[in-house]
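step 4 of 6: structure.
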Amino acid sequence: MAKVVVVGAGFAGHYASLILADALKGKGNHEITVISRVPKFTYIPSLVWVGIAKMKSEDVQFDLEPVYNKLGINFVHGAATEVHPDEQYVVVEKPDGSTQQVSYDYLLMATGPYLNFEGTPGLGPDKGFTHSICTPPHATKAASAYLELVSRMEKGDKVKIVIGTGHGAATCQGAAFEYISNVHNDLVDRGLRDRAEILWLSNEPALGDFGIDGLEFKHGGQIFKGEEVLEFLFEKYGIKYQIKSAVKKVDEKKIYTIDVDGNENEIEYDFAMLIPQFKAQPIKWIDKDGNDITDKICNPAGFVKVDAVYGKPYDELDGPDWPRTYQNPTYKNVFAAGIAFAPPGPLSRPSQAPDGTPIAPAPPRTGYTAELSGRAAALNIVDMIEGREPSHTASMAETPGLCVASLKHSLTTGEAVTIAIYPVARNRAAFPEYGRDLDNCVAEIGLAGAWFKYFLHHAFLYKLQAKPGWKLIP
Amino acid sequence: MATKREMMEKMWKYRKNFFIQLMRFVVLGLHFNKLVKKVH
């Protein structure tokens, strides 16, 4: 009998637990336990709609425990605070303040991000002045603030809206892009767009970079860049932009930025939604002698090292350096997936301001990419339980990125950008010219994308609740 | 050959045309399916 513990129940952790339950079903008395800080699964791609009050937070969440009861998975509600890899147990702090030790034979870390609002003074909805759509409570609060702003505009006020990233090393520019587009279109529908000045503020080295070093695609015999599409879209939407910038601090009235050339700017705002830096969840790794070995197991940001090639400079990084099996090199029974694994480096070219402030988008590894890494790690654990070496791979340099970025939420008048890239991380060893197979890359604006986004919302929520036939949905 | 700008204007013009978007939904769906099959 093997004990498998999954820490985290987001895209990577929750899907991995479903895969484990299915793959180990009827193969012995194996025990699967999921530890999660939150007792609900959140379908994060739809939080953008919660943030403009087009959807309620309960529409993007479901309770985990009933799903796990159905599949015979144990559930521990609490935050993992320590891992003892020699003695093979995880320390969990439960909501009532008590602690519990959960022992394992195999461990999958899929903890998701720690939202580092403290990394930028004045950032965030709890202790700062800006909003976020990174969690259901944050998105709900952002929606209330947005509706208050709308009410001011209805009375005749002219306002300034700033949306983008709130730290030089932030990621998830795609979510912010969806939000700024949905806000624009919502204000158009309300007849208020002429009363708002909307600014895209981002750490990206170019428009349309999205933390993945941009994208190219073929259309009508020509090669387009994501940057050209975004410039076109922002022109149509009347959205101004400031890129290559890090937010240094925020106060009640202004956002203070610095860019790669050292230009400092003070941006006045009435409403701001800025994505924070993502760090790893604060989990300590303790060896059998009680020593803190977190630095040995994790990278400086706290993400768990896996089978990637670490330490190469940006210009030397290539597809084969990205992890394939998600196995920790020190403890072979430990895996990490989704946001929790340490990438070998950034996808977008990093830079910094003259004062040393990093302006370097971190690589996004959410949604479908997280699911694929969680699935590979889960199946590799099954391999090891059955006496084989890990054989399943899901390198970001060998798997596609599929993304539908909502611009407006409606089945009749909506629009979205449908994006497919292959692979996510440029792989010049396989595709020398662009690092990607442009015959498989697509970016297209239209109502079809809005249908896709709606369809994916329901398909994923159905699949992840393990409803009948869930395995048929990839 | 149309310029990139002209092509993007064309995409913009037809972005909410129901019949064209229905066709694109099928084409893009098949493309997504092809990419998904590479990893499943």
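step 5 of 6: annotate
 - Helices of chain B lie at 4-13, 18-37.
 - Chain B has a mean pLDDT of 92.
step 6 of 6: archive
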